[in-house]
Write a sequence for this structure.
């Protein structure tokens, strides 16, 4: 999700005055710079850095991102800000209290990839962190993503989260037992961000994840990489899918049929 920072946060990051500079300490890795405030959070910051670098390698290899250039190095490293607690996070970013954090790509105010959260969020390292890294990697690899359905974006991002796939398969298995799921022709254009019903949101995310997992597990890494290359080259989603899965998936109806068989097993 992309937002604009509050004026305080921008000043705290970039004001040359010593008071603002003293707010943040940093740890640098190959692809990430971790900023933290409390000295006691240094250990957490080091753990976040290790895991972030691991997620970068894993996610990048799934789509072939690392083959084309040295992304996110030197001055282009992603900046991860760890506020000391939820109150500080909410107060200085303007985020709602329920927010766990967010990512921003090339925000016009500070021209950098950023992920912002707080150190007390237990689900951050295995949940929000890989989810947001995947969104940033995907946005870099496919700068114009207007031709990609939202379910594919969110399915791929969820694929990186620990525990998400098992829960999603459990929910979809339950729905299948009742003969219920979201038809693919509707799913292709469904913008869940405007949906007020939390159950529908849950189903959208669960189904999206299981479709992406089906594509990767059923047909392997090479076809999945080719799908991303076709999307990167501007092909419409179904054109890219047919080209990547030639002689295996030839239409949206065929994808739906194969997924139904896979998820019901």
């Amino acid at each position: 999700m992309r937002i604009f920072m509050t004026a305080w946060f921008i000043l705290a990051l970039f004001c040359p005055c010593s008071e603002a500079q003293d707010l943040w300490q940093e740890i640098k890795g190959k692809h990430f710079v971790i900023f933290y405030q409390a000295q006691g959070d240094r250990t957490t910051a080091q753990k976040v850095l290790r895991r972030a670098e691991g997620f970068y390698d894993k996610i990048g290899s799934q789509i072939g991102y690392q083959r084309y250039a040295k992304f996110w190095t030197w001055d282009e490293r992603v900046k991860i800000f760890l506020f000391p607690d939820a109150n500080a996070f909410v107060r200085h970013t303007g985020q709602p209290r329920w927010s766990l954090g967010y990512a921003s790509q090339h925000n016009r105010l500070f021209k950098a990839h950023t992920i912002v959260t707080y150190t007390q969020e237990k689900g951050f390292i295995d949940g929000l962190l890989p989810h947001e890294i995947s969104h940033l990697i995907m946005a870099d690899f496919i700068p114009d993503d207007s031709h990609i359905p939202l379910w594919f974006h969110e399915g791929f991002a969820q694929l990186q989260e620990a525990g998400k796939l098992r829960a999603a398969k459990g929910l979809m298995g339950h729905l299948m037992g009742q003969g219920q799921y979201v038809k693919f022709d509707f799913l292709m254009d469904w913008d869940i961000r405007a949906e007020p019903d939390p159950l529908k949101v849950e189903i959208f995310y669960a189904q999206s994840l299981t479709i992406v997992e089906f594509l990767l597990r059923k047909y392997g890494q090479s076809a999945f990489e080719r799908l991303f290359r076709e999307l990167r080259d501007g092909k419409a989603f179904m054109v890219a899918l047919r080209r990547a899965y030639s002689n295996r998936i030839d239409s949206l109806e065929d994808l739906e049929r194969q997924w139904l068989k896979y998820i019901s097993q």
About this structure: The longest helix spans residues 198-232. The chain is about 55% helix and 10% strand. The chain has two domains: 7-141, 150-264.
